[in-house]
Amino acid sequence: MSQSEATSAPVPVLPAPTRVEAERWVAGVVAGGAFAPGQAESLGRALRDASIRAVLAEGALAIKRSQTADRVTVSRNIFIPLTNLCRNRCSYCTFAKLPDSPEAHTYSLDEVEEVVRGGVATGCIEALMCLGDKPEVAYGSYREDLEKRGYSSTTDLIYEACRRAVSLGMLPHTNAGILSREELVRLRPVNASMGLMLETTSVRLRQKGGPHFHAPDKEPATRIRMHEIAGELKIPFTSGMLLGIGENDAERVDTLQTIARHAARYGHIQEAIIQPFHPKPGTKMRAASPLEDDVVVGWVALARLILPPVVHVQAPPNLGSNMLPRLLAAGVDDWGGVSPVTVDFINPEAPWPALRQLREETEAAGFELRERGPVYPEFILEKPDFFDPQVRVLLPNHANDEGYAQRRNDQSNEEAA
Ligand code: SF4
């Protein structure tokens, strides 16, 4: 159980491992076992040691190759921030705006359509609907705006936006923060996949002074519960960990183990994003130091070793543009969504690489870049029960015989972004 789920036996604090010990522990995982209690934490504390990192990366890469050989995937997508209002106020966020901000914006369906048409024209398959958590809970003016548009909730807007995207030939993936079971049931028939980064199981970070103090939806137990419901509903799901917002090594391991446990139990977690925090001007955490690249690479390798091999490990290439070969060598097998049309609205300061450049860099590191849609090939080929019938009939339009991206004849295959 995670720290946030229930109490369990305390994790022993092991001394820093020698290289030989690290090799033995990692070899056990590569052979199909799991770290013994305390080992992953001990490795996490030793990540600044280059020899330990090398052991982890070697093991992580062996697991990656056992699953996907030299293949690394990317999803050519559009990012539609349906609303940038949010009931939460995380200390590191620049995405969320207050209703009176000139930058506050909620999309109309015409605006959604315009972006979707741009995506279709440039060969995108995934329409990422990413937005703030339930702003109607916090803002009366937003509730009135929704009402004027004929919606009773943000979920109504998401549903209509997804329907519009589907009707124009794209497959939606929604990440709208915390959604109830009823909302997930409603959105499943108009989404190929959905997601919620677990981020962290640290309940400490919800306390006064912590980055999630003003973010009720960042309560770990609430996020874990949504992972369970998505599993029960058989929704292909994206989770992930946010690195460097104040959590400690034990909390990082706990977060990864919690994702791993839910993936093993429900088989619904397609991928885990390992996303490093970058401080942003104008936020409370503007002066916080991000993790060193070495440490990020080390945690990517540890994630690969802790998660079930079938869960893809994703690193956003725009947040580690100077270390792509090292991320690949540490077991990353997916670059996530990269858009030729829209910016990363969560990290607008970090431009996406052009797909052609990403392909060149991936190949230069000895790997092969393949495009996918919002769902991975094995879900399309082997898990038909994970899709609502309305979605299932759409999948062959977007996937080839191997489950990778396939475009209509009139869609562009151009990679220049
Ligand atoms: S929940 Fe997401 S959008 Fe809302 S404040 Fe936190 S990071 Fe920003």
Description:
The protein is of the alpha/beta class and 417 residues long. The chain has 2 domains: 19-62, no CATH class; 63-398, Aldolase class I (TIM Barrel, Alpha-Beta Barrel), CATH 3.20.20. The chain is built from 15 helices and 9 strands. It has helices at residues 19-30, 39-45, 50-68, 109-121, 140-148, 154-167, 181-187, 220-232, 249-266, 293-306, 324-329, 355-364, 377-382, 389-392, 395-398; strands at 71-80, 126-130, 171-175, 193-195, 237-243, 269-276, 312-314, 334-338, 368-372. Strands 1, 2, 3, 4, 5, 6, 7, 8 and 9 form a 9-stranded parallel sheet that branches. It is globular, with a radius of gyration of 20 Å. The chain binds iron/sulfur cluster. Iron/sulfur cluster binds next to loops. The site of iron/sulfur cluster has 12 residues, from loops.
The outline comes out as globular
- Amino-to-carboxy terminus distance: 44 Å
* CATH class category of the largest domain: Alpha Beta
The helix content, as a percent range, equals 25-40%
The structural domain count equals 2
Bound molecules: iron/sulfur cluster
Q: Strand tally, please?
A: 9
Major sheet characteristics: 9 strands, parallel
Q: Please mark out the parts with pLDDT under 50 across 5 or more consecutive residues, or reply none.
A: none
- Which band does the percent of strand residues land in? 5-15%
CATH-assigned fold name of the largest domain: TIM Barrel
